[in-house]
TrEMBL record:
Highest taxon in the source lineage: Bacteria
SUPFAM superfamilies tied to this protein: L,D-transpeptidase catalytic domain-like (SSF141523)
Organism: Nitrospirillum amazonense
Biochemical pathway: Cell wall biogenesis; peptidoglycan biosynthesis
UniProt keyword ATP-binding present: no
Entries under InterPro entries matching the protein: LD-transpeptidase (IPR050979), LD_TPept_cat_dom (IPR005490), LysM (IPR018392), Transpep_catalytic_dom (IPR038063)
Assigned GO CC terms: extracellular region
L,D-TPase catalytic domain residues: 107-237
Name this protein carries in UniProt: L,D-transpeptidase ErfK/SrfK
Residues at the active site: 197 (proton donor/acceptor), 213 (nucleophile)
Keyword set, alphabetical order: Cell shape, Cell wall biogenesis/degradation, Glycosyltransferase, Hydrolase, Peptidoglycan synthesis, Transferase
Keyword Cell wall biogenesis/degradation: yes
A GO BP annotation: regulation of cell shape
Molecular-function GO terms, alphabetical: glycosyltransferase activity; peptidoglycan L,D-transpeptidase activity
Amino acid sequence: MTKPRSGRPIRGRPAGWRFVGVAALLALLPHWRPVLAGTLIGETAAYRIESPSETLMDVARRFDLGYVEVRSVNPDIDPWQPRPGAVVLLPLAHLLPDVPPAPARRSLIIINLGDFRLYWLPAKGEPTSMPIGSAADPYPEPMGEGHIRGKRVNPVWTPPPTVRAEHPDLPLSVGPGPDNPLGAFALDMSWPAYAVHGTNKPDGVGRRVSHGCIRLYPEDIARLFPQVSIGTRVVMVDQPVKLGWIDGELYLEAHPDRDQADEIERNGTFVPHLSAQSTMDTRLWIARLAGDAVDRVDWGLVDDILSSRNGLPVPILKSPDTAAGAEQSPP
């Protein structure tokens, strides 16, 4: 977890952000525990807003988060007029989605629609993650495996038929500049007419608003673009719930599903609910992955995580001593 600091820039962030420590996180999230550095992509953190002019979207962009993920974990904070002094949780820690591993010395892009994140796993170096904007209904993204087939600097945008049907007055093409929705860089994927690109509307990052392409903040695509080679493997998945072993702990991370994400768009929050079938499927998945530790799984906590879906990875195993003294119901 990021250590508390005051009045000093952190990784290029402006002075004045007041980070808060472990005690504040524990008060806000009783099940949260610090995760050892290097075991997840990113680190859960929190800070205190001091300027009355900053919005939650300003906060999201400064810390490379999208709208839905920052709203889902901070439902009680006004997104446009957060109260000075409010403590905002930063959901910066992410389990990797469940995809087949890349061959040795091969880079990989994972696009997970379920948590509005792109994961960049370079052949050399540390993996990183960044928020995405994805397609609104009824424009589904392709699922499965593809690759990067082209790279464009200052791309020209030709409005596709779906966009032209909604906006018939658009020009035949839009060149580079502030009116171009592709931004300054585009990574064309092997699926026809699909790309990872920048945007001239950064407020759409972390939302389902596009006609199919994947949008990144301008600063993220500028950072990613030179690292990606033509032929890089791309895997597109939709996994709002993720699970993984981290240093002897089994972690569960649950994000809003599509309907709940749309509800957050409309209302700023969603009504928690547990689908019997999806809960049972997840419980069976947990039981299989837990293996010999299945008797230590805290099933009540699992239900809380699947209901709240705040996007934070949480350890779900009881300590051996606690599990030994308590009766556990089978999943």
